[in-house]
Write a structure and sequence with these properties.
By secondary structure, the protein is α+β, with helices and mostly antiparallel strands. Helix content is 51%, strand content 19%. One of its GO terms (molecular function) is protein folding chaperone.
């Protein structure tokens, strides 16, 4: 057997495998011998069928199968030994094969991953957001808690302080969604007045344009997706099903103890500090994810490398369950090219900066997650044996291990980006951060 490679260019290669008869004939003979032992052919006893008849009936099929097995094994070994980073899978070249020849020759096309390096310390326009819970947000959260733990009172008519349960509908647009909204949620006094004085069963028609302070609220109440809600200007009918008003809970020790445990919080100032601490912890995780995404987007824009587009388009034609035409494969490649570039950059971040995972890191992270979950249910100091048993069960699940491994690697990448990427730190409120997230 002989394997050679011809590099057509930096992104394409042809691997040629030559098989002599001695490379495969023994396997073929063994399979045919087993066929002979077990063949049931009319006119012959089992095991007494002439080999010539077995060869005539099964020889070519067995030869094809055994040669294919050897090709797959040898090609796989060759790619591993040569450490070739390929895209897609090798494609056999359609050559006429003389199966009676002493040497069989097979060609395979390879699409090679491009060579490139990443510059994390170069010039960029990336912002790293520090999201703070401002006074306005803290006041909103305190009021939300008061309403959440307050007493609901049913009302006869809608007033300025009322909350309504009802259904937004527009038959033509396929909108029919029951929600709870407060009159104060509605943006303008003009629209608020359309609801005030109405009773259960009444209907109010309003335009979606400017109905709420931002489109995300409109997206929520109409149950439509983010792309559809922008610029949406239609009339919707709101049918009132319930009218309620919340009598706010008092900000006293009884409420503080109910929220955080006895004596943990003893004043409104401490309540706000607690809310601020918890909120900004969540904001930090969201800001970190945006920073990760923004760095990757920057690397996508700033890293220039070619892909073996013609090879990948050809590979896509037969890669799925249903074969594609050349035009369909070209369209599919165009759609998936950015995703492929993203995957290559992700892999390059790990290889160029030698980011690796080991079992102990994954186990340690799993233990941390388990303890945090147990603490949420009041188990602040669980026994080590109990935690170890849960960790063992979690790590016996491959899907869970894969998910946790991704989390640990994300933390490593984030630490790398924080160290290497020169980003502008910008302090913003959560409301402004949401605008930055969605480019509004």
């Amino acid at each position: 057997m002989n394997i050679t490679r011809n590099n057509v260019d930096a992104l394409n290669a042809i691997v040629t495998i030559e098989l002599a008869k001695e490379d495969y004939q023994g396997n073929v003979d063994n399979v045919l011998s087993n066929y002979k032992k077990n063949a049931n052919v009319p006119g012959f006893r089992k095991g007494a069928v002439p080999m010539s008849l077995i060869v005539k009936q099964y020889g070519k099929a067995v030869l094809f199968e055994e040669v294919n097995k050897i090709l797959q094994e040898k090609l796989g070994n060759y790619l591993a030994e040569e450490k070739l980073d390929i895209l897609g899978n090798p494609l056999p070249v359609a050559n006429d094969i003389n199966w009676d020849a002493d040497v069989l020759k097979f060609d395979f096309e390879l699409g090679l991953a491009p060579e490139f390096t990443l510059d994390l310390e170069g010039k960029n326009k990336i912002k790293k957001f520090k999201v703070v819970a401002d006074d306005a947000m803290l006041d909103e959260q305190v009021e939300f808690i008061q309403k959440q733990y307050g007493k609901m009172i049913s009302k006869e008519v809608v007033e300025e302080t009322s909350e309504m349960v009802g259904t937004f509908a527009n038959e033509e647009e396929g909108i029919n969604n029951e929600v709870k909204i407060a009159v104060s949620d509605i943006r303008t006094k003009t629209n608020q007045k359309k609801f005030i004085g109405k009773k259960v069963g009444d209907q109010v028609t309003v335009s979606t344009k400017g109905l709420f302070e931002d489109d995300h609220k409109l997206m929520e109440v109409l149950a439509v997706d983010h792309d559809r809600v922008h610029g949406l200007e239609i009339d919707v009918v709101f049918t009132i099903n319930e009218i309620n008003e919340t009598e706010k809970a008092e900000l006293n020790q009884e409420l503080f103890d109910k929220l955080f445990g006895e004596g943990v919080v003893t004043s409104v100032e401490q309540l706000k500090e607690k809310i601020k601490e918890d909120a900004e912890k969540q904001f930090a995780a969201q800001a970190d994810q945006k920073f990760l995404n923004d760095v990757y987007e920057h690397l996508l824009d700033s890293s220039s490398f070619e892909l073996p587009a013609a090879f990948l388009t050809k590979w896509l034609m037969d890669a799925g369950e249903t074969p594609m035409t050349a035009e369909e494969a070209a369209a599919e490649y165009a759609k998936s090219e950015k995703g492929l570039r993203f995957q290559l950059i992700e892999g390059k971040v790990m290889s160029q900066f030698d980011l690796q995972l080991n079992f102990e890191e994954i186990k340690e992270h799993t233990t941390k997650l388990i303890k945090e979950q147990m603490a949420q249910f009041g188990q602040m100091d669980p026994e080590d044996k109990v935690v170890e048993d849960i960790v063992a069960r979690v790590m016996s699940n491959q899907d869970e291990v894969r998910r946790i491994s991704e989390q640990v690697m994300n933390e490593k990448v984030l630490a790398l980006f924080n160290e290497k990427v020169k980003a502008e730190v910008k302090e913003v409120s959560y409301k402004d951060f949401v605008k930055e997230m969605y480019g509004e």
